[in-house]
Amino acid sequence: MPSIPWLLVALTTMACAPPSSDASQPGESDPLGSLTAGSASEGTAGPRADVVAARATGESGDLTVFVTIRSDETGCDQYADWWEVVTPEGELVTRRVLAHSHPDDNPFERSEAGVDLSRTEPVFIRAHMAPGGYVGDALEGSFDSGFTPAALPDGWFGELQFQEPLPTDCLF
């Protein structure tokens, strides 16, 4: 019969291990594989954070970016915790961390000032949902030519979810 400490370690390890599965589900916290970004109209289940509009004021190199998000928010347990602007090469241009949930203010617009970006540079704008990751519709385009819905592949630069700045807490 196995000793009790070994049995406790085995049971604890089994209880904490993620379920094994060959197919990840959309919205899981797999940073590179199953996170869905872009056009989720193909049937992403679960809570979503859709970028529905984007605009900017100011001159190239010093923009104030405004992003409108529609999300399935219930409070700090489920809310859009940031939006970000990403180059086609996957470089994070800016991220606007959202300090609280917006269950009664939806869709909502938030801005970020001092963004060092050309008005003509093509970018992608997407939102991040806590929990769930990059699930929802994204936009692509430039601030001069406008934006259209983006069709980003699953996991598109999902590793950016670990890059600073990141939310530290949800206030309400």
**Uncertain runs:** 1-43
Shape: globular
* Element order: H for helix, E for strand: HEEEEEEEE
Cα-atom radius of gyration: 18 Å
Name the CATH architecture. Sandwich
Estimated share of beta-strand residues? 35-45%
Total of DSSP H or I helical runs spanning 4+ residues: 1
Briefly note the structural class of the backbone: mainly beta
Domain count, please report it: 1
What would the CATH topology be?
Immunoglobulin-like
Strands of the biggest beta sheet: in what spatial order? Answer: 4-3-6-7-8
| Oligomer class | single chain
Largest sheet: number of strands, sense, barrel closure: 5 strands, antiparallel
Give the end-to-end Cα distance, rounded to a whole number of Å: 50 Å
- Approximate helicity band: under 10%
